[in-house]
Amino acid sequence: MNIVVCVKHVPDATADRRFKSDNTVDRVGVDGLLSELDEYAVEQALQIKEKLGDDSEVTAVCIGPDGAVDAVRKALQMGVDKGVHVSDEAIAGSDALGTSLVLAEAIKKVGTPDIVVCGMASTDAGMSVVPAMLAERLGLPQVTFASVIETQGDQIRIKRDGDAATEVIGATLPVVLSVTDQTGEARYPSFKGIMAAKKKPLETLTVADLGVDAGQVGLAASWSAVEETNARPPRTAGEIVKDEDGSGAAALAGFLASKKFI
């Protein structure tokens, strides 16, 4: 079975994230890492492979600048068999439409997929639309926001938890699948996995290699853009509530009510 997992290199949420002068996310001058939500996708792809116990292969596909290759390397260290990194200046500033186009063509380059696994969203954009766009571009059915995944033969069944109900959805492979952070903790790369990853194939491609017109991607081709950004305001000193005369509880409740926390 040919399993593809889409991974994204995102700015570290604990670092000083910032925008560039054109209001696109700075992905070069800040520390980055494999999106935590995509780690769950990698884990589920590996679990599907392990359940099959055959010659199935998992390929990680990533788009981003040179440093984004670290996201692919992390996936390889976790157990993925091979990686594809699409790096091209023309892609910078792409929105979800451009991103899904490049991902779809990269997946086709890997070969006809049986399952394409994605995270539920990226931790830097949080749009949650790329899996659906991928399904449309690849001409595949989609089962999204899975919290539980079951596979048997060419059938897949997921559980999707909503605000008011839980749905059970089934589909026949091939399929595009997105998973939530409720599917189970992702594994940590072992020392053996880290060493083995150094020998695994990792291919770097450009949009030209994929047959994508550079005019179809990038900031100029995006249907959405950030018009303005503002720096996060500096932290202010907190308010101390004292309980010297027994009025602390009332003062605390009044403070929470004034901030509409209660």
Describe it.
It is a single chain. The protein has 262 residues and is of the alpha/beta class. It has helices at 36-52, 69-78, 96-110, 130-138, 191-197, 207-210, 248-258, and strands spanning 2-7, 9-11, 32-34, 57-63, 82-86, 115-119, 142-146, 148-152, 155-161, 166-172, 175-179, 202-205. Helix 2 (69-78) packs across helix 5 (191-197) and helix 3 (96-110) packs across helix 4 (130-138). 35% of the residues are buried.
| Low-pLDDT windows of residues | none
- Major sheet details: 7 strands, parallel
What is the average per-residue confidence, as pLDDT, rounded to a whole number?
Answer: 90
The best one-word shape is globular
Helix content class: 25-40%
List how many beta strands DSSP finds. Answer: 12
| DSSP helical segment count | 7
What structural category characterises the helix and strand content? alpha/beta
Secondary-structure element series: EEEHEHEHEHEEEEEHEHH
Strand order of the largest sheet: 7-11-6-1-4-5-12
Query: In angstroms, what is the radius of gyration?
Result: 21 Å
* Straight-line N-to-C gap: 52 Å
Question: Strand portion, in percent?
Answer: 15-25%
